[in-house]
Amino acid sequence: MNAVSDIATPLRNDADPQHIVRTWLERFNAAIEAGDETMLSHLFRADSHWRNVLGIDWSFATITGRETIVPALVAACSKNGARNFVVDENRTQPFEGQTAGEPTIDAILNFETSIGTGIAHLRVQTPADGEVVAWTLMTFIDSLKGHDLESERLKRERPAYERDWSGPNWADKRRESGSFADRDPQVLVVGGGHGGLTAAAWLKALNIETLVVDRIARIGDNWRNRYNALKLHSPTNSVHFPFIPFPDTWPRYIPKDKIANWMEFYVDAMEIDFWTSTSFEGADYDEARGRWNARLKLADGSIRVLHPTEIIMATSQNSVPVMPRIPTIEHFSGPVLHSSQFSNGHAWAGKNVLVFGTGTSGHDLSQELHSSGANVTMVQRGETEIVEIEPTAGLYVDHVFEGDGPPLEERDLLFCSLPAQLVMQEHQKLTRIAHEMDRPLLDGLRKVGFKLDSDPDSFGWVFKGIARGGGYYFNVGGSNLLVNGDVGLIQYEDIVRFDSNGLHLADGRFLPCDLVIMATGYKGVADLLQRLFGEDVTRRVGQVWGFDPDRQELANMWVESPQKGLWFAGGTFTHSRIFSKYLAIQIKAKQLGIAS
User: Fold this and answer.
1) Architecture of 3-144 per CATH?
2) What is the Cα–Cα distance from 552 to 61, expressed in whole angstroms?
3) Which residues make beta-bridge pairs with 297?
4) Are 136 and 51 in contact (CB under 8 A)?
5) pLDDT tens for residues 114-149?
6) What pTM did the predictor assign?
7) Topology of 180-319+524-592 in CATH?
8) What residues contact residue 552 under an 8 Å CB cut-off, 6+ apart?
């Protein structure tokens, strides 16, 4: 095939989406097979993006710009045998969509590599000149050859008719296996929240022996023991766990105890080995043996040393509470609690409570205390993004996860299909729309002196979560209490000093106080790494979470860190559901010796 003459014939832009995508794919496959960069360059927009999640090679990164993408794609496909990119006939067929205000045609593909199968999302456009070009291409690994879910399930199962009539039954075997009395787990997961459980579920599905440990006394206590009125602020359709979705009868926003009980059920249903009342005391890596010496403090106070080859830190970004140094607060005679230590407001009815922080926890605690009859004043220390939970917050995710449409797996692909640069563009637009939609509330907050996010080019709450782990609040009524004067507000810089009974302000007022709550967030992962792994490992790993501008992805998340055998999992429920699969596949490939 003559590559130049082939691409010289423009594709009619009035053709149907399936024809447009299939014709583009014919030319793409021909260019990849021939290693023809000239031909391939005609198939991409100048400002196109390729997001590879271990799909064509073992990179987890986004590449931007045709001049960079084309040689990288040719090299990766040649090296790893990527071929036969076709429309996935078992999924939603190519359809017309819109991205960042521009019309597109979206398609879900599958392809092969030398080690497995892949799935891809393609977004093409048909400009006026008729030459169809790709704007975004996302490539995921889907399974390793011989190690797909069905193959791994068959390896676990004996024929259905076989029984150990006089031997141990399923429950006996589960107890024995979970004790790890005579062996080490291949993977140790530190943290039994949603990040740890979803990773463990996928590792279990791929027959990788995994142990989850957590200090909590009962599975789910990391949610069960939090403040009384807590609910998830993300809609239920976006926060399903892998393999077992929530029932259709569940509420739109899940109460904390309901999600806690689900986690307990999930561990049992997915046969996840989980040690409660177990504290991870740290680990050092044995380079010669390629394994960790991991120290665990058990419920009885004894120390057990395990030797996993991999450790996954799934303690989230919210592990070590921040208790800021507030000048003169030592003079206050009442209790000073972090938000993680607060359970409910009933004990503080009729009392005066000061809440430092205006993010989610600060608002939620203030609202709960107010409803319990406490006199509450919030202290604001910095600008905060406020978004009405209904309907405004849904602008960012409801178009993907709500309403009738494709199955969740396809929605997850769509959720991940946009590279960070386009997500930022989209979210800038959505944030401006959100500010207009919420103008009555925001104007009311300004009138009482609340400091709202003043950045006119803000990317909104999603990127605040990535950059800061907070700094926003979905209004479920807490902001209205401020606007109506039911909850007081002062600025941190107006504080003069504490005395034993309360707070003196610059305007001469005195605020009596019986309780101070610090809704001030948590320390970053670096603090935890330093304590558990030491300075060398912390320095070697570098940034965890936050945006990595080189890879255009979250830093050191769901990939092996620069420290061999050390991984990080977490983020939102949605992130954990999606990327736990790819973390597990990487570990499986590493143990099979096929991951470079």
Assistant:
1) Roll (3.10)
2) 6
3) 279, 303
4) yes
5) 999 999 999 999 876 668 999 999 999 999 999 999
6) 0.91
7) FAD/NAD(P)-binding domain (3.50.50)
8) 51, 61, 62, 64, 419, 420, 421
